[in-house]
Protein backbone atom coordinates (compact mmCIF):
# COMPACT_ATOMS: atom_id res chain seq x y z
CA UNK A 1 0.00 0.00 0.00
CA UNK A 2 1.27 3.43 -0.86
CA UNK A 3 1.88 5.46 2.24
CA UNK A 4 0.02 8.74 2.19
CA UNK A 5 2.39 11.47 3.16
CA UNK A 6 1.22 14.72 4.69
CA UNK A 7 3.96 16.69 3.00
CA UNK A 8 4.00 15.68 -0.63
CA UNK A 9 6.34 17.33 -3.06
CA UNK A 10 3.41 18.91 -4.87
CA UNK A 11 2.06 20.37 -1.64
CA UNK A 12 5.49 21.65 -0.71
CA UNK A 13 5.89 23.39 -4.07
CA UNK A 14 2.40 24.94 -3.91
CA UNK A 15 2.90 26.12 -0.35
CA UNK A 16 6.34 27.49 -1.15
CA UNK A 17 5.06 29.37 -4.21
CA UNK A 18 2.17 30.79 -2.17
CA UNK A 19 4.57 31.92 0.55
CA UNK A 20 6.84 33.66 -1.96
CA UNK A 21 3.78 35.20 -3.61
CA UNK A 22 2.65 36.46 -0.23
CA UNK A 23 6.07 37.93 0.36
CA UNK A 24 6.05 39.77 -2.97
CA UNK A 25 2.39 40.79 -2.87
CA UNK A 26 2.91 43.89 -0.70
CA UNK A 27 4.83 45.25 -3.71
CA UNK A 28 1.49 45.70 -5.44
CA UNK A 29 0.28 48.18 -2.84
CA UNK A 30 3.52 50.17 -3.19
CA UNK A 31 4.93 49.57 0.25
CA UNK A 32 8.07 48.01 -1.19
CA UNK A 33 10.45 49.28 -3.88
CA UNK A 34 9.41 47.97 -7.32
CA UNK A 35 11.64 45.14 -8.54
CA UNK A 36 11.36 45.76 -12.32
CA UNK A 37 11.84 42.00 -12.60
CA UNK A 38 15.42 42.50 -11.38
CA UNK A 39 16.43 39.54 -9.21
CA UNK A 40 18.86 41.73 -7.24
CA UNK A 41 16.03 44.05 -6.23
CA UNK A 42 13.94 41.01 -5.25
CA UNK A 43 16.81 39.91 -3.01
CA UNK A 44 17.02 43.41 -1.49
CA UNK A 45 13.28 43.28 -0.73
CA UNK A 46 13.68 39.84 0.83
CA UNK A 47 16.38 41.24 3.13
CA UNK A 48 14.15 44.21 4.02
CA UNK A 49 11.08 42.06 4.75
CA UNK A 50 13.20 39.57 6.72
CA UNK A 51 14.83 42.31 8.82
CA UNK A 52 11.47 43.86 9.60
CA UNK A 53 9.95 40.47 10.45
CA UNK A 54 12.85 38.96 12.40
CA UNK A 55 14.77 41.78 14.10
CA UNK A 56 13.42 43.39 17.25
CA UNK A 57 12.13 46.82 16.17
CA UNK A 58 14.14 49.94 16.90
CA UNK A 59 17.07 48.42 18.80
CA UNK A 60 19.67 51.11 19.43
CA UNK A 61 22.93 51.00 17.50
CA UNK A 62 26.02 50.79 19.72
CA UNK A 63 27.12 54.13 21.13
CA UNK A 64 30.77 54.89 21.82
CA UNK A 65 32.76 57.14 24.12
CA UNK A 66 34.39 60.43 23.18
CA UNK A 67 37.85 58.84 23.00
CA UNK A 68 36.58 56.46 20.28
CA UNK A 69 35.96 59.34 17.83
CA UNK A 70 38.06 58.66 14.73
CA UNK A 71 39.21 60.28 11.55
CA UNK A 72 36.32 60.48 9.10
CA UNK A 73 36.65 60.64 5.30
CA UNK A 74 34.20 62.84 3.39
CA UNK A 75 33.05 61.04 0.25
CA UNK A 76 30.30 61.37 -2.34
CA UNK A 77 29.29 65.02 -2.64
CA UNK A 78 31.75 67.04 -0.55
CA UNK A 79 30.83 70.59 -1.57
CA UNK A 80 27.68 71.52 -3.55
CA UNK A 81 28.99 75.13 -3.70
CA UNK A 82 31.98 74.10 -5.82
CA UNK A 83 31.26 75.27 -9.37
CA UNK A 84 33.83 72.87 -10.81
CA UNK A 85 31.90 69.81 -9.60
CA UNK A 86 28.90 68.08 -11.13
CA UNK A 87 27.07 68.35 -7.81
CA UNK A 88 27.08 72.19 -7.97
CA UNK A 89 23.91 73.88 -6.76
CA UNK A 90 23.56 77.62 -7.25
CA UNK A 91 20.84 77.72 -4.61
CA UNK A 92 23.16 76.04 -2.11
CA UNK A 93 26.00 78.35 -3.08
CA UNK A 94 23.87 81.43 -2.27
CA UNK A 95 22.71 79.97 1.07
CA UNK A 96 26.26 79.07 2.00
CA UNK A 97 27.54 82.61 1.33
CA UNK A 98 24.99 83.91 3.84
CA UNK A 99 26.15 81.38 6.42
CA UNK A 100 22.97 79.34 5.93
CA UNK A 101 20.99 82.09 7.70
CA UNK A 102 18.31 81.84 4.99
CA UNK A 103 18.34 78.06 4.87
CA UNK A 104 15.00 76.42 5.65
CA UNK A 105 13.93 72.78 5.70
CA UNK A 106 10.47 72.44 4.24
CA UNK A 107 8.31 69.58 5.49
CA UNK A 108 5.25 68.72 3.46
CA UNK A 109 3.06 65.86 2.24
CA UNK A 110 0.90 63.74 4.55
CA UNK A 111 1.26 66.08 7.52
CA UNK A 112 -1.30 68.25 9.32
CA UNK A 113 0.86 71.40 9.54
CA UNK A 114 3.36 71.63 6.65
CA UNK A 115 6.00 74.27 7.17
CA UNK A 116 9.59 75.35 6.91
CA UNK A 117 12.14 75.12 9.72
CA UNK A 118 15.21 77.34 9.86
CA UNK A 119 18.43 76.18 11.50
CA UNK A 120 17.59 78.11 14.68
CA UNK A 121 14.06 76.63 14.66
CA UNK A 122 15.58 73.15 14.64
CA UNK A 123 18.04 74.09 17.38
CA UNK A 124 15.18 75.15 19.66
CA UNK A 125 13.95 71.54 19.95
CA UNK A 126 15.54 69.36 22.67
CA UNK A 127 18.73 68.06 21.02
CA UNK A 128 20.04 64.53 20.95
CA UNK A 129 23.76 63.81 20.88
CA UNK A 130 25.24 60.38 20.25
CA UNK A 131 28.59 58.88 19.25
CA UNK A 132 28.05 56.18 16.67
CA UNK A 133 29.80 54.17 14.00
CA UNK A 134 29.26 55.13 10.38
CA UNK A 135 29.42 52.08 8.08
CA UNK A 136 30.16 52.95 4.46
CA UNK A 137 29.02 50.61 1.69
CA UNK A 138 32.62 50.75 0.41
CA UNK A 139 33.78 48.78 3.45
CA UNK A 140 35.22 51.41 5.79
CA UNK A 141 33.90 52.65 9.13
CA UNK A 142 34.39 55.80 11.21
CA UNK A 143 33.12 57.03 14.58
CA UNK A 144 31.81 60.54 15.20
CA UNK A 145 29.61 62.45 17.60
CA UNK A 146 26.40 63.80 16.06
CA UNK A 147 24.08 66.43 17.47
CA UNK A 148 20.64 67.18 16.10
CA UNK A 149 16.94 67.00 16.58
CA UNK A 150 15.27 63.57 16.47
CA UNK A 151 13.30 63.21 13.25
CA UNK A 152 10.42 61.85 15.35
CA UNK A 153 10.23 65.19 17.19
CA UNK A 154 9.84 67.09 13.91
CA UNK A 155 7.35 64.58 12.50
CA UNK A 156 5.24 64.90 15.66
CA UNK A 157 5.55 68.66 15.50
CA UNK A 158 4.13 68.80 11.96
CA UNK A 159 1.46 66.23 12.85
CA UNK A 160 2.06 63.19 10.69
CA UNK A 161 -1.21 61.81 9.26
CA UNK A 162 -2.34 58.22 9.96
CA UNK A 163 -2.01 57.30 6.27
CA UNK A 164 1.71 58.19 6.23
CA UNK A 165 4.08 55.31 5.37
CA UNK A 166 7.35 56.82 4.11
CA UNK A 167 9.53 59.86 4.71
CA UNK A 168 11.23 61.16 1.54
CA UNK A 169 14.33 63.34 1.58
CA UNK A 170 15.54 65.76 -1.09
CA UNK A 171 19.06 67.19 -1.04
CA UNK A 172 20.73 70.19 -2.67
CA UNK A 173 23.14 67.94 -4.57
CA UNK A 174 20.19 66.28 -6.32
CA UNK A 175 19.88 63.16 -4.21
CA UNK A 176 16.43 61.78 -3.42
CA UNK A 177 15.84 58.92 -0.99
CA UNK A 178 13.30 57.61 1.49
CA UNK A 179 12.98 55.61 4.70
CA UNK A 180 10.06 53.80 6.29
CA UNK A 181 8.38 55.00 9.48
CA UNK A 182 10.11 52.43 11.69
CA UNK A 183 13.46 54.02 10.82
CA UNK A 184 11.99 57.55 10.77
CA UNK A 185 10.81 57.13 14.37
CA UNK A 186 13.97 55.32 15.52
CA UNK A 187 15.31 57.23 18.56
CA UNK A 188 18.75 57.56 16.93
CA UNK A 189 17.43 58.92 13.63
CA UNK A 190 18.22 62.63 13.83
CA UNK A 191 18.46 65.71 11.65
CA UNK A 192 22.06 66.51 12.58
CA UNK A 193 23.44 70.04 12.62
CA UNK A 194 26.50 69.32 14.75
CA UNK A 195 29.47 66.99 14.35
CA UNK A 196 32.09 66.36 17.03
CA UNK A 197 30.88 69.35 19.07
CA UNK A 198 31.01 71.89 16.23
CA UNK A 199 28.74 73.02 13.41
CA UNK A 200 28.34 70.33 10.78
CA UNK A 201 31.20 70.90 8.27
CA UNK A 202 30.33 71.36 4.58
CA UNK A 203 32.08 68.12 3.45
CA UNK A 204 29.83 66.23 5.91
CA UNK A 205 26.54 67.80 4.80
CA UNK A 206 26.14 71.32 6.22
CA UNK A 207 23.94 72.82 7.41
CA UNK A 208 21.80 69.76 8.22
CA UNK A 209 22.08 66.10 7.30
CA UNK A 210 20.16 63.00 8.18
CA UNK A 211 21.76 60.46 10.52
CA UNK A 212 20.27 56.98 10.47
CA UNK A 213 22.36 54.64 12.55
CA UNK A 214 20.85 51.25 11.66
CA UNK A 215 21.56 51.49 7.94
CA UNK A 216 24.62 51.88 5.71
CA UNK A 217 26.11 55.38 5.41
CA UNK A 218 24.55 56.41 2.11
CA UNK A 219 21.09 56.51 3.71
CA UNK A 220 22.28 59.38 5.94
CA UNK A 221 21.63 62.03 3.35
CA UNK A 222 23.71 65.21 3.39
CA UNK A 223 22.71 68.81 2.45
CA UNK A 224 18.99 68.40 3.27
CA UNK A 225 16.59 70.65 1.42
CA UNK A 226 13.09 69.19 1.70
CA UNK A 227 11.20 66.42 3.49
CA UNK A 228 8.02 64.95 2.02
CA UNK A 229 5.88 62.46 3.95
CA UNK A 230 4.00 60.07 1.64
CA UNK A 231 1.49 57.25 1.99
CA UNK A 232 3.17 55.09 -0.64
CA UNK A 233 6.63 54.26 -1.86
CA UNK A 234 7.91 56.95 -4.21
CA UNK A 235 9.69 55.24 -7.06
CA UNK A 236 13.06 56.78 -7.73
CA UNK A 237 13.80 54.45 -10.64
CA UNK A 238 16.49 51.79 -10.68
CA UNK A 239 19.51 53.61 -9.30
CA UNK A 240 21.48 50.36 -9.16
CA UNK A 241 21.78 50.73 -5.38
CA UNK A 242 19.66 48.96 -2.78
CA UNK A 243 16.96 51.06 -1.11
CA UNK A 244 17.08 49.20 2.20
CA UNK A 245 20.65 48.87 3.44
CA UNK A 246 20.45 47.66 7.03
CA UNK A 247 23.02 45.12 5.83
CA UNK B 1 45.08 -1.86 5.31
CA UNK B 2 44.92 1.82 4.61
CA UNK B 3 43.19 3.90 7.28
CA UNK B 4 40.66 5.45 4.93
CA UNK B 5 39.01 2.12 4.25
CA UNK B 6 38.24 1.71 7.94
CA UNK B 7 34.98 3.62 7.64
CA UNK B 8 33.11 1.53 5.13
CA UNK B 9 29.88 1.96 6.94
CA UNK B 10 26.74 3.83 6.08
CA UNK B 11 25.32 4.38 2.62
CA UNK B 12 27.22 3.72 -0.50
CA UNK B 13 25.50 6.55 -2.40
CA UNK B 14 25.05 10.25 -1.78
CA UNK B 15 21.52 11.12 -0.67
CA UNK B 16 19.47 13.35 -2.91
CA UNK B 17 19.31 16.18 -0.33
CA UNK B 18 23.09 16.04 0.03
CA UNK B 19 23.50 16.41 -3.74
CA UNK B 20 21.01 19.30 -4.09
CA UNK B 21 22.36 21.27 -1.16
CA UNK B 22 25.95 20.59 -2.33
CA UNK B 23 25.29 22.21 -5.71
CA UNK B 24 23.16 25.10 -4.42
CA UNK B 25 25.92 25.90 -1.94
CA UNK B 26 28.55 25.52 -4.70
CA UNK B 27 26.81 28.09 -6.93
CA UNK B 28 26.15 30.42 -3.96
CA UNK B 29 29.78 30.16 -2.90
CA UNK B 30 30.93 31.09 -6.41
CA UNK B 31 28.58 34.12 -6.45
CA UNK B 32 29.77 35.16 -2.98
CA UNK B 33 33.41 34.73 -3.97
CA UNK B 34 33.16 36.85 -7.14
CA UNK B 35 31.20 39.65 -5.44
CA UNK B 36 33.45 39.40 -2.39
CA UNK B 37 36.48 39.98 -4.61
CA UNK B 38 34.66 42.95 -6.18
CA UNK B 39 34.06 44.44 -2.72
CA UNK B 40 37.68 43.84 -1.74
CA UNK B 41 38.71 45.77 -4.86
CA UNK B 42 36.57 48.74 -3.76
CA UNK B 43 38.28 48.97 -0.37
CA UNK B 44 41.39 46.79 -0.41
CA UNK B 45 42.41 47.76 3.13
CA UNK B 46 41.81 45.66 6.25
CA UNK B 47 41.77 46.76 9.88
CA UNK B 48 41.32 45.53 13.44
CA UNK B 49 38.72 46.86 15.90
CA UNK B 50 35.63 48.95 15.24
CA UNK B 51 37.10 51.62 12.98
CA UNK B 52 39.07 51.62 9.77
CA UNK B 53 39.21 53.97 6.80
CA UNK B 54 41.67 55.66 4.45
CA UNK B 55 42.59 58.18 7.15
CA UNK B 56 43.47 55.52 9.76
CA UNK B 57 46.29 52.94 9.62
CA UNK B 58 45.58 49.58 7.97
CA UNK B 59 46.51 46.10 9.24
CA UNK B 60 47.29 45.11 5.64
CA UNK B 61 46.27 46.21 2.15
CA UNK B 62 46.11 44.45 -1.19
CA UNK B 63 47.15 45.84 -4.60
CA UNK B 64 44.01 44.55 -6.35
CA UNK B 65 42.51 47.68 -7.93
CA UNK B 66 43.22 51.31 -8.73
CA UNK B 67 41.87 52.12 -5.25
CA UNK B 68 45.05 50.66 -3.71
CA UNK B 69 46.96 53.55 -2.07
CA UNK B 70 45.27 56.00 -4.42
CA UNK B 71 46.24 58.96 -2.24
CA UNK B 72 43.47 61.12 -3.68
CA UNK B 73 42.62 63.18 -0.59
CA UNK B 74 42.73 66.90 -0.13
CA UNK B 75 44.24 68.46 2.98
CA UNK B 76 43.30 67.04 6.38
CA UNK B 77 41.22 69.19 8.71
CA UNK B 78 41.43 68.30 12.44
CA UNK B 79 38.16 67.92 14.35
CA UNK B 80 39.63 69.14 17.64
CA UNK B 81 42.26 71.66 18.66
CA UNK B 82 44.54 69.26 20.52
CA UNK B 83 47.54 67.61 18.88
CA UNK B 84 46.88 64.22 17.27
CA UNK B 85 43.22 65.04 16.78
CA UNK B 86 41.23 62.82 14.41
CA UNK B 87 40.86 64.50 11.04
CA UNK B 88 38.53 64.79 8.11
CA UNK B 89 39.56 64.96 4.46
CA UNK B 90 37.59 65.07 1.23
CA UNK B 91 38.23 62.49 -1.45
CA UNK B 92 39.34 63.90 -4.79
CA UNK B 93 39.95 60.53 -6.49
CA UNK B 94 37.30 58.76 -8.59
CA UNK B 95 37.45 55.30 -7.01
CA UNK B 96 36.54 51.97 -8.60
CA UNK B 97 33.15 51.07 -7.12
CA UNK B 98 30.74 48.42 -8.42
CA UNK B 99 29.19 47.76 -5.02
CA UNK B 100 25.66 48.63 -6.23
CA UNK B 101 25.21 45.23 -7.85
CA UNK B 102 28.13 43.68 -5.96
CA UNK B 103 26.52 44.08 -2.55
CA UNK B 104 23.00 43.11 -3.65
CA UNK B 105 24.28 40.01 -5.46
CA UNK B 106 26.46 39.10 -2.47
CA UNK B 107 23.45 39.16 -0.16
CA UNK B 108 21.30 37.24 -2.67
CA UNK B 109 24.02 34.57 -2.77
CA UNK B 110 24.09 34.73 1.03
CA UNK B 111 20.35 34.00 1.21
CA UNK B 112 20.73 30.90 -0.99
CA UNK B 113 23.75 29.72 0.97
CA UNK B 114 22.14 30.20 4.37
CA UNK B 115 18.83 28.56 3.41
CA UNK B 116 20.49 25.57 1.67
CA UNK B 117 23.01 25.42 4.51
CA UNK B 118 20.31 25.30 7.18
CA UNK B 119 18.40 22.57 5.31
CA UNK B 120 21.67 20.63 5.03
CA UNK B 121 22.47 21.10 8.73
CA UNK B 122 19.06 19.99 9.96
CA UNK B 123 18.89 17.06 7.53
CA UNK B 124 22.45 16.11 8.46
CA UNK B 125 21.59 16.01 12.14
CA UNK B 126 18.18 14.32 11.90
CA UNK B 127 19.07 11.68 9.32
CA UNK B 128 22.22 10.76 11.23
CA UNK B 129 24.34 11.67 8.19
CA UNK B 130 26.86 13.63 10.24
CA UNK B 131 27.10 10.97 12.94
CA UNK B 132 27.32 8.10 10.48
CA UNK B 133 29.47 9.55 7.71
CA UNK B 134 31.39 12.55 9.04
CA UNK B 135 32.22 12.06 12.73
CA UNK B 136 35.19 9.66 12.95
CA UNK B 137 34.48 6.49 14.89
CA UNK B 138 36.28 5.84 18.18
CA UNK B 139 38.48 3.15 16.64
CA UNK B 140 39.05 5.19 13.54
CA UNK B 141 40.61 8.18 15.21
CA UNK B 142 44.10 8.30 16.59
CA UNK B 143 46.86 10.79 16.10
CA UNK B 144 48.97 8.13 14.39
CA UNK B 145 46.25 7.26 11.88
CA UNK B 146 45.58 10.93 11.33
CA UNK B 147 49.25 11.68 10.60
CA UNK B 148 49.45 8.70 8.28
CA UNK B 149 46.44 10.05 6.35
CA UNK B 150 48.01 13.51 6.12
CA UNK B 151 51.29 12.08 4.83
CA UNK B 152 49.61 9.89 2.21
CA UNK B 153 47.71 12.96 0.99
CA UNK B 154 50.91 14.98 0.80
CA UNK B 155 52.41 12.17 -1.30
CA UNK B 156 49.34 12.44 -3.49
CA UNK B 157 48.34 8.88 -2.69
CA UNK B 158 44.65 9.53 -3.07
CA UNK B 159 42.29 6.55 -2.75
CA UNK B 160 39.95 5.95 -5.66
CA UNK B 161 36.41 7.20 -5.27
CA UNK B 162 33.56 5.06 -4.12
CA UNK B 163 30.00 5.98 -5.06
CA UNK B 164 29.13 7.73 -1.86
CA UNK B 165 30.16 9.08 1.54
CA UNK B 166 32.88 6.61 2.51
CA UNK B 167 35.23 9.29 3.65
CA UNK B 168 38.77 9.07 4.95
CA UNK B 169 39.87 10.46 8.30
CA UNK B 170 41.49 13.67 6.99
CA UNK B 171 38.58 14.13 4.61
CA UNK B 172 36.05 13.80 7.45
CA UNK B 173 37.84 16.26 9.70
CA UNK B 174 38.22 18.75 6.83
CA UNK B 175 34.52 18.57 6.00
CA UNK B 176 33.61 18.98 9.68
CA UNK B 177 35.88 22.01 9.88
CA UNK B 178 34.23 23.58 6.81
CA UNK B 179 30.66 22.77 7.86
CA UNK B 180 30.84 23.56 11.57
CA UNK B 181 33.56 26.20 11.76
CA UNK B 182 34.41 28.07 8.55
CA UNK B 183 30.90 28.37 7.11
CA UNK B 184 29.26 29.53 10.38
CA UNK B 185 32.22 31.89 10.91
CA UNK B 186 31.65 33.39 7.44
CA UNK B 187 27.94 33.91 8.09
CA UNK B 188 28.45 35.33 11.60
CA UNK B 189 31.23 37.76 10.62
CA UNK B 190 29.15 38.77 7.58
CA UNK B 191 26.20 39.60 9.83
CA UNK B 192 28.54 41.58 12.12
CA UNK B 193 29.10 44.06 9.27
CA UNK B 194 25.36 44.86 9.20
CA UNK B 195 24.38 47.98 11.19
CA UNK B 196 20.78 46.75 11.64
CA UNK B 197 21.82 43.31 12.88
CA UNK B 198 24.49 44.57 15.28
CA UNK B 199 21.98 47.07 16.69
CA UNK B 200 19.73 44.10 17.49
CA UNK B 201 22.56 41.74 18.52
CA UNK B 202 25.51 43.81 19.80
CA UNK B 203 27.24 40.68 21.18
CA UNK B 204 28.41 40.06 17.59
CA UNK B 205 30.64 43.14 17.82
CA UNK B 206 32.03 41.85 21.11
CA UNK B 207 32.88 38.32 19.99
CA UNK B 208 34.59 39.47 16.78
CA UNK B 209 36.35 42.50 18.41
CA UNK B 210 34.50 45.07 16.28
CA UNK B 211 33.01 45.63 12.84
CA UNK B 212 36.37 45.96 11.04
CA UNK B 213 37.83 42.88 12.78
CA UNK B 214 34.75 40.99 11.60
CA UNK B 215 35.46 42.16 8.03
CA UNK B 216 39.09 41.06 8.31
CA UNK B 217 38.13 37.65 9.76
CA UNK B 218 35.50 37.34 6.99
CA UNK B 219 38.24 37.93 4.41
CA UNK B 220 40.70 35.45 5.99
CA UNK B 221 38.01 32.78 6.35
CA UNK B 222 37.04 33.32 2.70
CA UNK B 223 40.67 32.71 1.73
CA UNK B 224 40.64 29.50 3.82
CA UNK B 225 37.42 28.36 2.10
CA UNK B 226 38.93 29.12 -1.31
CA UNK B 227 41.96 27.01 -0.38
CA UNK B 228 39.57 24.24 0.65
CA UNK B 229 37.79 24.53 -2.70
CA UNK B 230 41.06 24.16 -4.62
CA UNK B 231 42.19 21.13 -2.58
CA UNK B 232 38.69 19.62 -2.83
CA UNK B 233 38.83 19.95 -6.64
CA UNK B 234 42.31 18.42 -6.82
CA UNK B 235 41.13 15.50 -4.67
CA UNK B 236 38.03 15.02 -6.84
CA UNK B 237 40.23 14.89 -9.95
CA UNK B 238 42.87 12.60 -8.39
CA UNK B 239 40.30 10.16 -7.03
CA UNK B 240 38.44 9.72 -10.31
CA UNK B 241 36.77 12.83 -11.67
CA UNK B 242 34.06 11.12 -13.75
CA UNK B 243 33.00 8.76 -11.01
CA UNK B 244 32.98 11.53 -8.40
CA UNK B 245 30.90 13.90 -10.54
CA UNK B 246 28.47 11.10 -11.41
CA UNK B 247 28.22 10.19 -7.73
CA UNK B 248 27.36 13.79 -6.77
CA UNK B 249 24.87 14.27 -9.65
CA UNK B 250 22.96 11.61 -11.61
CA UNK B 251 24.40 8.59 -9.78
CA UNK B 252 21.82 6.86 -7.62
Describe this structure as you would to a colleague.
Chain A contains six helices and eleven strands. With 247 residues, chain A is α+β, with helices and mostly antiparallel strands. Chain A has two domains: 48 residues, no CATH class; 169 residues, Oxidoreductase, molybdopterin-binding domain (Sulfite Oxidase, Chain A, domain 2), CATH 3.90.420. In chain A, the strands form two sheets. Chain A has a five-stranded mixed sheet. In chain A, strands 4, 5, 8, 9 and 10 form a five-stranded antiparallel sheet that branches. In chain A, a hairpin with a 4-residue loop joins strand 6 and strand 7. Chain A is globular and about 70 Å long. The model of chain A has no long low-confidence stretch (mean pLDDT 92). The relative contact order of chain B is 0.16. The longest helix of chain B is centred in the middle third of the chain and has 28 residues. Chain B has a two-stranded antiparallel ribbon. A two-stranded antiparallel sheet of chain B has the order 3-4. In chain B, 57% of the residues lie in helices and 4% in strands. Chain B has one domain: Transmembrane di-heme cytochromes, Chain C (Fumarate Reductase Cytochrome B subunit, Up-down Bundle). Classes of the chains: A alpha+beta (247), B mainly alpha (252). At the A-B interface, helix 2, strand 1 and strand 5 of A face helix 1, strand 4, helix 2, helix 6 and helix 8 of B. Strand 1 of chain A pairs parallel with strand 4 of chain B.
